[in-house]
Amino acid sequence: MLNIAVIGAGRIGHVHAKTIAAHPGATLALVADPFGDAAEKLAATYGARHTTDVDSVFADESVDAVVIGSPTPLHIPHLLAAAKAGKAVLCEKPIALDMEDVEAARDELSAVSVPVMFGFNRRFDPSFAAVHTQLEKGTIGELENLLIISRDPAAPPAEYVKVSGGIFRDMTIHDFDMARFFLGDIVEVHAFGQNFNEEIKEAGDFDAAVVTLKNAAGVVATIVNNRKCSAGYDQRLEAQGSTGTLNADNIRATTVRLSNGEVTDAAEPYLDFFLQRYADAYRIELTEFIDAVVAGTKPTPSIDDAIEALRLAEAATESAQTGKPVSLA
Q1: Its Enzyme Commission number (predicted)?
Q2: Distance CA 174, CA 289 (A)
């Protein structure tokens, strides 16, 4: 039984706390958040201890592992503090807001010896993972192109956008990791940012984007993002190979469809948001993390995966601003 502490009692902290509390191989031991009574309230829900002193988590000998859901600028400091204390780490994405922070800590990150996993949970989504497995089996031959569609049901507040690092770091970062999961290392990025939301435009960010990524073999991934989708949380993936195509479609609450004199094949709305859509992915992600910690193996996605995803986010930002492709070769 792994005793796990969660740092950060915001929305993602709630997701991880719930997942840990429900897992047969883990105990939610401690919740830490320096602001108000957020940690106390979340911890009380699951019978855990709480603290407003985040540093005390690293000194707590009863804690085996730490889930880091703190603000992005604190990810590297909290990761390194946990690792130095000998605690395994599951850290939310992105690793940092810019590569300068990564480079400043590169030597320390390279020296980390405890198991560290990054929260690119979509790798563990059963549908996406099944597509990847079928591709590796050669079911559709050699991969030729990949299409990733990721649209949110509603845009976040402009105040959040201002501190998020931008759409490519905050939203597309998951899709960059998914593209690398299928294509491996990327050598070229070409991004097109779009503005339909005036508040987000005034905040200095895009609210929609299309990104093309190419690997050394010439395989191309296309990512389509939008902060707002009237149909709901739109999450799809298509892999086209030399002998066939694999599709992972949206998930709904049921498979019921209605046909009558007004509509045919009318289905329920997409699941409302990531909490519902990726509930299984978070559970499987945690299981992979626990198994790696118990076995003493290196989990993935790794620190290197997180760094590469951020590199792609920075390249996409540059490309969208300049209108030119960015080479990473």
Answers
A1: 1.1.1.18
A2: 18
